[in-house]
Amino acid sequence: MMNMSKVKVNQDKTIETVPTYNANDIGELRGLLASARSQGLTVAIIRIPARLFAIDEKYQIPVRTNRSLRYLIDNFDDAKLLPVTGVPHDEEGLIYLVDGYGRWQASQIVDPIKYEYLNCLVILNAPTEPEERRKFEAEQYAFQNVSVAKMTALQKHGAYECMENPIALAIDELMEKYDFTFVSEKGNRSSGILGSYNSLWNIIKVYGKECGDFIFDVLHKAAFDRKSNGYSRYMFRCLRDVYRYYKNNIDEATTFLSSYLRKLDPTLFKANAVTQYPLLDMEMACSLYVEDLLVENLDLNHVRTVNGKKVKLLTA
């Protein structure tokens, strides 16, 4: 957890946050909320000192807002300063924000005196037990109505963990087993870095963790985990299709592909596939190229046929 109430812009225009902690009596927050609670309100908009705000980094990733904080500062509009949203932690005398971290931080850079207090939509009916409260906050954070920048699945990963989402937990298990990581920026990936978090998420959602395990197992045995772009989306796509269409021959496919791919790097593999299927998009070309390899080397049958730019699934 983190309570950051001091922020500054350095000479190089980078933004620095300085951790501070509430030094006042924890009864201050109770006093601010007393009237709303006495009325039995479940939510209330209350002016709260900015120094009493905090975030929980277990589910909220500060880098999401740091990316757009400069925009918020440069376009700060008092008329559009909507209330932040938070959950009170009476035992600490702090309110943990689930929406509005960027507005909070930007306001303290723009004018910390003017914005010493911020309007806050305080959720008064949140669970009081710490772990249940964290799950509640994580859900509020993950499904907030973000109007400026849409949150990606990767940015929600920590929140999904707190909510014990089975897909997020499966990704965590695979990360621990195969020691990969992921980044939010686009572009080429160095070794061991996931090319597309969304691709892995969707694979596990549709085909289960076993499919993800098969993909990482093949890539690990083929040493693609130590090659640039080894965890690229096109590799995930073609191996997903192997699992999808040749599940009954998965052990044979694992052995063959692990050995075959060791002779290549991802770029050469992709080039071979595109050369073989120049009319298809790159990911489909890679998928069909692997299917051809299995058919030719494992005495299997094609499950798809290609006619120009069209790919058709063969019926049994």
Structure, described:
This protein has 316 residues and is an alpha/beta fold. The chain has twelve helices and eleven strands. Strands 3-7-5-6-4 form a five-stranded mixed β-sheet. A two-stranded antiparallel ribbon has the order 1-2. Strand 10 (304-307) and strand 11 form a beta hairpin. The model has no long low-confidence stretch (mean pLDDT 86).
Short account of what is shown:
It contains twelve helices and eleven strands.
Describe the main β-sheet briefly: 5 strands, mixed
The spatial strand order of the largest sheet comes to 3-7-5-6-4
CA-atom Rg in angstroms: 25 Å
Percent helix among the residues? Answer: 40-55%
Q: Pick out the low-confidence regions.
A: none
Shape: elongated
Number of helices: 12
> What's the order of the H and E elements?
EEHEEHEEHEHHHEEHHHHHHEE
Calculate the terminal CA-CA distance, rounded to whole Å. Answer: 56 Å
On the 0 to 100 scale, the average pLDDT is: 86
- What structural class should be given to the helix and strand makeup? alpha/beta
Strand percent estimate: 15-25%
Record field, number of beta strands: 11
